[in-house]
Amino acid sequence: MTENDQIGKSIYDSLEQIRGKLEPTRFRDIFFPLFFLLFASKKFELAEKKEIETKEKLAGVSSYILQEALNSDTFNRQGILYIPKKARWEQIVEADKTGSLFSAISSAFSMIYNENDKNKFNNFEFLFKEINQSNVSASNLSLIVNLFNKKIWIDNKDNITLENIDDHFGKIYEYLIYHYGDKTNDNAGEFYTPSSIIDLLVNFLDIQPQKKIYDPCCGSGGMFIRSLNYINKVYKDDLEKKKRALNPSEFLEFVPAEFYGQEINQNTISICWSGLIINGIIPKLGNDDTFKNYFHQDQVGQIDYVLANPPFNLTLNEKEYPSWGSDPRWIFLVPSTKNANLAWIQHIYYYLRKDGGKAAVILSKDSASSPDSIDIETRRKIIESGCIQAMLFLPENLFFNTGISVCVWFLKRDVNKTNDKILILSYPEGGESESKKISYLTPSEIKNLKEIYFKYLNGQLEKEGSSVIYKQYKCEWKILTIEEVLTDNPDCSLTPGTFNIEENIDLSEDLEVDEIPFEPGNEENVLLKEIKEMQPWLKELSESKKNFDDFLI
Known about the structure:
Elements: H1 3-19, H2 24-59, H3 63-69, H4 72-76, H5 89-98, H6 101-115, H7 138-154, H8 165-179, H9 195-205, E1 212-215, H10 222-234, H11 236-244, H12 248-253, E2 258-263, H13 266-278, E3 284-287, E4 305-308, H14 341-351, E5 355-364, H15 373-384, E6 388-393, E7 406-414, E8 421-426, E9 432-433, E10 439-440, H16 443-457, E11 469-472, E12 475-481, H17 482-486, H18 523-552
Parallel strand pairs: 1-2, 1-4, 2-3, 4-5, 6-8
Antiparallel strand pairs: 5-7, 6-7, 8-12, 9-10, 11-12
Helix pairs in contact: 1-7, 1-8, 2-7, 2-8, 2-13, 5-6, 9-10, 9-16
């Protein structure tokens, strides 16, 4: 566990004592604005100090005069919120001592909203609206303020700089968001996709730096943050090289990637926005029903990567969508409103860049096989278009609030070169148990699955013919031509079972010995383990016998 994870755990444990019986998501909407205010205030103070020190050296003017001359434009250009003196964290701490926390917090957020560029920071105004006396007591609010002040700031301030403050707060943010999207919260799946699944998507897409990334149902922004982490880790040297080549004005505008998102829940999109600000990114976000009023229309056909985990099997009221039948997003076929799974696929495809945009979309397994006549015909047209690169079917129990089987649609839009084959990859027995109900994909599993996928993309899995069933890493897969997918397949199903691919892999295949615990009812697998453990000894015995026979001869 990293140092920031340890801080995150300590804070989480203390927050849970304060939360009591309050629903986790509601409690998150109360404590998180304070977490963000602490971050924004301290980052501004560090940036202001650096700005003053730089200008003092150049102009020889006193720090007091420089401080008075600095305004929001100076910092907004750098992607930093300008925090007026009366809105800073110290004012909140002082207000706690005088019993005026509620009014001080409301005043601080109002001042910050009014002093900054509303085009850049347009999701800020909703962030603190849940902090009122009907949702949280003054004593609990005081406990949160003092907890954050000590454990996040005072205990660590000597080690926090302008260069590392995003990382310090960002890691704690991820820890808290993860643990307030846990299995006990029935609403968690609405805003949080487990990080191991996002890491899988990001690795499969191999997201390149300085590209456009879109999520039409972005929740708390997990897809964006894990994409950013991937870019900063995998392409760190490339980014540093590009930065060194920039002049000062260009450097201020440099970003590792552009993020576009939409979310129907107002509170959640504020969390998403502030989480990205904490990670040093100003996203472009819209707040509305994606099907009813879709944002970022200037980016249609321009997006490099889409990562999405839309609501599964969403039913829409046709009367609320009067232009559904004439919507330009339905490139393949007007989708059914009984189940919006394939509407999401078409909406996402509509945004992809036409010369190589890629998408990874998590949907329920039903999306690949639903028997509705409109769904069947829509799937047929999507398959025939050659935009599906792969279908990945994942283990159950990877999500907090559902044990439903899920699949990932990997799409590529390229008008110059379509895919003539589809990888159907089944991975039903993977995942490592985190609890009785929840599992997660390990880094080694993600690495193995990525290896299979990239070998497929590079044509390294097709030597035995496209109809061969492959087995490796507890997976089974087939590489099929579009013609093979549609032959004798009236439902245009894309599920593994349709193509005789195992959907429940026998653990004796590709057995990992150390992974099988002894449990009642698990005797068969334990026996397999023991047999495998004996294999080296049996091999040695066989060689010894051969040597003895040779000696007799």
